[in-house]
Amino acid sequence: MKKKILNILKYIAFTALGGLLFWLVYRDQDFSKIWNTLTHEVDYRWIILSLFFGLLSHVSRTLRWKIALEPLGEHPKTINAFITVMVSYFMNLLLPRMGEFVRCGMLSRYEKIAFSKLFGTVITERIVDVLMLLISFSIVLVLEFDKIIHFGKENPQVVNNVKAILQSPYLWGGLVAAILGLLYYLHLSKKKGGKNKLEEVFNDFVQGVKSVLAMKRYKAYIAHTIFIWFMYFMMLWMVFFSLPFTNELNPLAALTTFVMASFGMVAPVQGGIGAWHFMAEKTLGLYGIESANGKIFALLAHTSMNSMIIVAGVICVILIPIVNRNYNPKEKEE
């Protein structure tokens, strides 16, 4: 009961934070102008193409996950892996970071694979994605150094917030305490003799992480990683062509906006709402796009991407029990 109440409170807090950030970004906007732009000036053919590239990224992420599971001797059905990936994106819109747990839980249920093994591969996947974001940022930093410096000067609150998080004694203290607590618990368990459930889960998790290092098709894994991030970029770049005030910006402007807005997704709010819009609008300002138009772009891009996730997520939640109605993972063919 307490856990349910805590989850509800977390959901309310994250939703309120996202709503506050969104309100702060759009509170002074002329919504009649926004509505007129969205209904009369947007070329939605580009939005459809954008969503197609987004769908390709999700398919590639599914195939990459299957490659990571191969060293563990696990070969889930592609349709099951894809459905759980889409549901994870959908769940992250409801509660930040919940999607990873739901994704592993659903696949574990239908494919009879240990949850901790799956979670180990997903954690590794997230580490790889962070590295890709840092690599992308490094490229932008080299190519658009002056603009990134200008962004920092114009938005000191963003820099200060990042510093505050990284320098927070609560963050590092909590992390150290959690690690020491886990090690102490495992030490006590060994002294008593035998294995315990937590140790088994921990070993499965480590095995899942190591599976990425042990996979034979690592080149395919890397290729999928690059393709996923390129599709992410293409998904945003296509939105540039849909609006009259961004369609003449060059690909480098789109790449810079993509990278800077991606940092907004790190904020602990559903789908980066508010934070993503802020970062996109401020970055577009570096390329001469006035604030009001930058906010329209951010609203269009963010809403279209997440609308696809919501629709696909709901469909997948309904679809997975139907797809697995007569499925026995023990009888699946390799």
Helical element count?
14
Oligomeric composition of the shown chains: single chain
Radius of gyration, in Å, reads 22 Å
Summarize the main sheet: none
Integer average pLDDT: 80
Written description of the protein model:
It is built from 14 helices and no strands. By secondary structure, it is an all-alpha fold. It has one domain. Helix 4 (78-94) packs antiparallel against helix 5 (98-111), helix 4 (78-94) crosses helix 14 (291-323) and helix 12 runs antiparallel to helix 13. The chain starts with a helix and ends in an 11-residue tail after the last helix. The model has no long low-confidence stretch (mean pLDDT 80).
Show the helix and strand layout.
Blueprint: H1 2-26, H2 31-40, H3 44-69, H4 78-94, H5 98-111, H6 115-143, H7 145-154, H8 156-166, H9 169-192, H10 197-214, H11 218-241, H12 251-264, H13 275-285, H14 291-323
Helix pairs in contact: 3-4, 3-11, 3-14, 4-5, 4-14, 5-6, 6-7, 6-10, 6-12, 11-12, 11-14, 12-13, 13-14
Brief summary of the model shown:
The protein has 334 residues and is an all-alpha fold. The protein has 14 helices and no strands.
